[in-house]
Every structure is written in C-alpha cells, then in structure tokens.
C-alpha cells in the first residue's frame, strides 16, 4: 500500500487531500497542530489513517519530523501544505513574524527533512502547496513573500 504524509492535514486543502488519498487506497498520515481536528478526521476515516501533532515552526520540528518519517518507514509522498496567513490590517509585526516562521523557515525545514528521507530510501515525491499570493502579492507583505518563496 502506498503511503502519504500530509503536513497541514487539519483543515482546508490538507484535510481534503487526506480524505481523497484515503479513498484512493493510500495509507494516510496526517500531521498538524490541532489535535482535536486530527482526531475528528481519524474518527471519519478510520483504519488507514493515523496522525501526529506536529508544529513545523516548533524548535524541535526537524527532529520530530525525522522521528515520524523514520517510524513510518517507506513513505511515497510528503505533501507540505501547512501555513498561516492573516489579513493583518493593523500590520501587527508579530503576525508577520509568525507568517515567516511558519511559511518560510518551517517550510524549508520540513521540505529539507522530507528530501533527506527520500534520498535515504532512494525514492519519493515532495508536493508543496503555495498560493496565487506569491505572484500577485495578495495579503500582507510577509504572506505574499512567503508564498513566492515556496513557489520559487
């Protein structure tokens, strides 16, 4: 059975991708910050879906992801679609810094860690979700720049 790890499986595109790949017969491992939403998805999908609470902006994110991928063994696909974004009309610098921490630094660490795993197993696919905001500059400066970073 093929296996996909989805980083950002708690909502939106990540959640929908988990449901779709599960229906296609993949073993799905969902990662995200909100355990309540992951547990809800487990209840919906049942066997063939497992999850771990994972914060890609956390200080131990690289080690945690390495441990998860090692535990899972052979992984065919890592889908990296976690991210944050705010309207941030007040231009709160803390929100901008969180956007950079998750969408740039966290993304880079997760993508690098996934690729290390694929190099060790000599195969695998990394899929990354971005946004039109990376082209058109929609949202705040940090959000648009972070999505351009991912796209490039």
Description:
There is one protein chain. By secondary structure, this protein is α/β, with parallel strands linked by helices. It is built from 6 helices and 5 strands, in the order E-H-E-H-E-H-E-H-E-H-H. The protein has a 5-stranded parallel beta sheet, sandwiched between helices. Helix 3 (61-72) packs parallel to helix 4 (93-121) and helix 4 packs parallel to helix 6 (141-151). The longest helix is centred in the last third of the chain and has 29 residues, at 93-121. It is globular and about 45 Å long.
Number of helices: 6
Helical coverage, percent range: 40-55%
| Strand order in the largest sheet | 3-2-1-4-5
Low-confidence stretches: none
- List the helices and strands in order: EHEHEHEHEHH
Mean pLDDT: 95
Q: Could you give a short description of this structure?
A:
This protein has 152 residues and is of the alpha/beta class. Helices cover 52% and strands 16% of the residues.
Using brief descriptors, characterize the structure shown.
152 residues, alpha/beta, five-stranded parallel sheet
Show the helix and strand layout:
Layout: E1 3-7, H1 12-23, E2 27-32, H2 35-45, E3 49-53, H3 61-72, E4 77-80, H4 93-121, E5 125-128, H5 133-136, H6 141-151
Helix pairs in contact: 3-4, 4-6
């Amino acid at each position: 059975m093929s296996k996909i790890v989805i980083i950002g499986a708690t909502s939106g595109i990540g959640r929908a991708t988990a449901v779709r790949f599960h229906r296609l017969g993949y073993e799905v491992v969902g990662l995200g910050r909100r355990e309540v939403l992951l547990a809800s998805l487990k209840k919906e999908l049942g066997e063939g879906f497992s999850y771990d609470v994972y914060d890609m902006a956390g200080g131990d994110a690289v080690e945690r992801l390495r441990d998860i991928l090692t535990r899972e063994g052979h992984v065919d696909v890592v889908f990296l679609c976690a991210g944050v974004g705010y309207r941030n009309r007040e231009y709160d610098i803390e929100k901008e810094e969180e956007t950079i921490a998750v969408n740039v630094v966290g993304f880079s660490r997760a993508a690098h860690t996934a690729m290390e795993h694929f190099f060790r197993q000599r195969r695998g696919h990394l899929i990354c979700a971005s946004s039109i905001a990376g082209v058109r500059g929609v949202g705040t400066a940090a959000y648009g720049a972070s999505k351009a970073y991912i796209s490039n």
